[in-house]
From TrEMBL:
The gene is mgsA. Belongs to the methylglyoxal synthase family. It comes from the Bacteria. InterPro entries: Methylgl_synth, Methylglyoxal_synth_AS, MGS-like_dom, MGS-like_dom_sf. It comes from Paenibacillus medicaginis. Catalyzes the formation of methylglyoxal from dihydroxyacetone phosphate. The active site is at residue 61. This is Methylglyoxal synthase. Residues 1-144 form the MGS-like domain. GO terms for molecular function: methylglyoxal synthase activity. Keywords: Lyase.
């Protein structure tokens, strides 16, 4: 079971809802996280249970970023609006940087999201299980 986050800027929320609905059968077997409104809208449109953090501008991106910094997130689908300035752009940049530092797969558009979800469905994310198994302080899957 992997940890997957969904984040979508306002003008990308409908696209996110449609995407998650189309792949609900893939996401149902994983732990799901999201920023506030995006998560609420996904839950209203699907049967998925999502742990919701605050809205992005109120710190939700940073809350997800904290999980990434601990290498405790496996995949992020972040549908960004590249044509609209965001008041919390430094938070967004920090989250993207953390994904690069920790090697967390990150989709910032629907095309990349589709490729990653198809890989997830095929089982191509098994390497993330090894990341968790061999984290410092964890032996045989248990915290020591």
């Amino acid at each position: 079971m992997l940890k997957i986050s969904f984040i979508a800027h306002d003008r990308k929320k409908d696209e996110m809802i449609n995407f998650v609905t189309a792949y609900e059968h893939v996401f149902k077997d994983h732990q799901l996280y999201s920023t506030g409104t995006t998560g609420q809208r996904i839950m209203e449109a699907t049967k998925l249970k999502i742990h919701r953090y605050m809205s992005g501008p109120l710190g939700g991106d940073q809350q997800i970023g904290a999980m990434v910094a601990q290498n405790d997130m496996d995949l992020i689908i972040f549908l960004r609006d590249p044509l609209m300035a965001q008041p919390h752009e430094p938070d967004i940049t920090a989250l993207l940087r953390l994904c690069d530092v920790q090697g967390i797969p990150l989709a910032t558009n629907i095309a990349t999201a589709e490729i990653l979800v198809k890989a997830l469905d095929r089982g191509d994310f098994a390497w993330r299980e090894l990341v968790h198994k061999y984290k410092p302080g964890i032996q045989d899957g248990e915290i020591k």
